[in-house]
Write a structure and sequence with these properties.
Elements (H helix, E strand, L loop, with lengths): L1 E5 L3 H12 L15 E3 L5 E5 L5 H6 L5 E5 H7 L4 E6 L5 E8 L4 H6 L4 E5 L2 H11 L3 E5 L6 H5 L4 E6 L3 H5 L2 E10 L1 E6 H6 L1 H20 L1
Parallel strand pairs: 1-3, 1-4, 7-8, 7-9
Antiparallel strand pairs: 2-3, 4-11, 5-11, 6-9, 6-10
Helix pairs in contact: 1-9
The structure holds adenosine-5'-triphosphate (ATP) and 1-O-pyrophosphono-5-O-phosphono-alpha-D-ribofuranose.
């Protein structure tokens, strides 16, 4: 049995076409079912639904053989314990610094001010501001980062941006792009040895589907 860890929502939705390319159909719809273990048309393959930030933990510790997770989540978790054979080019976005439109970020940085930065991505933010030589107080949040500058909790946020609509709706502006993000296939190291043939077949099918898509 091969177990693939996915999170509900965009990662699940964007993974379905890749699974289809490997002749795998998920038999339940996570939006309508309360099941956490989903069967597929292949008796040897199942999908487990976990929180996006829990995917690396499941894969690293053998709760799943494979998983799909954002580069952001992988960096925060630390990816050393897993193979990362493939960038799937799905759930693409970027991680950026944003501030209130009336906050002069350039000036604060030039003056060497200490910045209060709210984020779910403390490792990425710490590394980024350390490399710039900017002193920051990091405030760990688990969601709705955009609210922090609006309420006076923070001067800036480090968060994911795709269309920019969420920032715009909250009168925030993107002032720095830290890195591009997409989702990766991650594989448990022991699983790759013990279940080599089926896992290799899945990696190859995904790789082919990603390559074909990038040709379009
Ligand atoms: N707006 C977006 N556009 C494209 N990709 C995104 C966007 N937001 C997030 N992602 C990517 O999708 C991944 C999963 O995001 P999702 O919103 O499903 O989970 P989450 O709510 O961030 O995680 P958790 O439930 O663990 O807090 C992120 O880690 C990121 O790589
Ligand atoms: O630039 P945009 O296209 O507006 O996308 C950016 C938003 O997308 C993500 O939130 P998501 O929609 O996943 O909601 P979440 O807070 O539940 O993760 C992210 O946390 C941003 O808030």
């Amino acid at each position: 049995m091969i177990t693939l860890a996915l999170s509900k929502g965009r990662i699940f939705d964007d993974t379905l076409p890749l699974l289809r390319a490997a002749n795998i159909e998920v038999l339940d719809n996570p939006e309508t079912s309360r099941k956490l273990i989903l069967d597929t048309n292949q008796p040897g393959v199942r999908v487990v639904l976990v929180r996006a930030s829990d995917v690396p933990t499941y894969v690293e510790n053998g709760g799943a053989d494979l998983g799909i997770t954002g580069r952001d989540t992988l960096i925060e978790h630390g990816g050393q314990g897993m193979y990362q054979p493939l960038d799937l080019q799905i759930a693409k976005c970027r991680i950026s610094v944003a501030v209130r439109a009336d906050f002069d970020y350039e000036r604060a940085v030039k003056q060497g001010s200490r910045l209060r930065v709210a984020t779910k991505y403390v490792a990425i933010a710490r590394e980024f501001f350390a490399a710039k030589g900017v002193h920051v107080d990091l405030i760990k949040l688990y969601g709705s980062m955009e609210l922090a500058p609006l309420t006076g909790l923070a001067d800036a946020i480090v968060d994911l941006v795709s269309t920019g609509n969420t920032l715009k709706a909250n009168h925030l502006v993107e002032v720095e792009r830290i890195m591009d993000i997409s989702s990766r296939l991650v594989v448990n190291q022991a699983s790759l040895k013990l279940k080599q043939a089926p896992i290799r077949a899945l990696i190859d099918a995904f790789a082919k589907a990603v390559a074909e898509r990038s040709e379009i």
